Structure formats: C-alpha cells, structure tokens
Q: What sequence folds into this?
C-alpha cells in the first residue's frame, strides 16, 4: 500500500485521558513535541514550531478537520520534511486520523495517514511514506508513555 500508513496500539489509559492528550493543544504539544499557538478548532489552521530534537523550530501547520469527542480527531497537513518556512497552503496534503475506542484494559488507538498518492513525485511520496511510518511508530510510543505515566 503506497497511499496509507496505519498503526494500532492498545493504551493502558482511560478513553477520556487519551482524548485529552490528543485534542488539548498543550498536551498534544508535550508528547508530539510541538509548541502550538492555540487550541485546536475544527475548520481552522493550527500553527506552531516543532520542539523535536533535530527539528527544533521547524514550522508545524495543520488544518483541523474533525473533533468528534472521544472518537475521532483528524487534521490535514503537508507531510514534507526539512522545509522550515515553506508556505504549505497550496501543497498536496495528507489526512491524519486518530480513532479511539474503549477496550477492557483501556483504549485502542488507530492512527492513519492517507493521501500519499496525491504527492507530486515518486521520490517525495516514498520519502514521506518512509519517514512518517517511522515517525508514527515513535509518536505512538511517546503518546503511550505520556498517557500511561
């Protein structure tokens, strides 16, 4: 599959705790390592700067497209790396979805990112897929450590 990344994790934390970590901009910023300018609002662009080691200060921008309480948080963003101050408004974007549901032991989280086939060239598409596949694995570990602490 070249158009989609999907990762699943079982978290030992209640649904409400995971939802807050995903949708409160300060909590999201802590585990995702991005300093955001303000709260997530559906239909608005969220802006900030990354604090992730090696990527400090890189522009972070995402259009919030869904916030269905304790079920779905989604945004669109440009998955390109190493382009610190590029204007992403006209660039092809991918859709990132965080879907959560309660389980016997806590919360099941499915993170998916789709739309890679819409990226402009094969090299950029493959680079973004490879980089984001690794990135989501790391972010899932970071989120788990954050909500299970």
A:
């Amino acid at each position: 599959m070249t158009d989609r990344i999907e990762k699943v994790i079982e978290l030992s934390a209640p649904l409400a705790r995971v939802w807050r970590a995903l949708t409160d901009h300060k909590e999201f910023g802590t585990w995702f390592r991005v300093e955001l300018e303000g709260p997530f609002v559906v239909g608005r662009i969220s802006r900030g700067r990354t604090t992730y080691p090696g990527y400090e200060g890189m522009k972070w921008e995402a259009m919030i497209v869904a916030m269905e309480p304790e079920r779905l948080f989604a945004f669109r963003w440009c998955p390109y790396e190493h382009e610190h101050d590029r204007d992403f408004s006209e660039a092809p974007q991918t859709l990132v979805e965080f879907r959560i549901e309660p389980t016997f032991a806590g919360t099941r989280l499915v993170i998916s990112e789709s739309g890679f086939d819409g990226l402009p060239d094969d090299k950029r598409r493959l680079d973004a897929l490879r980089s984001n596949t690794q990135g989501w694995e790391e972010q899932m570990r970071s989120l788990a450590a954050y909500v299970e602490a």
Observations:
- The domain at 4-9+41-148 is CATH 3.30.530.20 (Alpha-D-Glucose-1,6-Bisphosphate; Chain A, domain 4).
- The first strand starts at residue 4 and ends at 11.
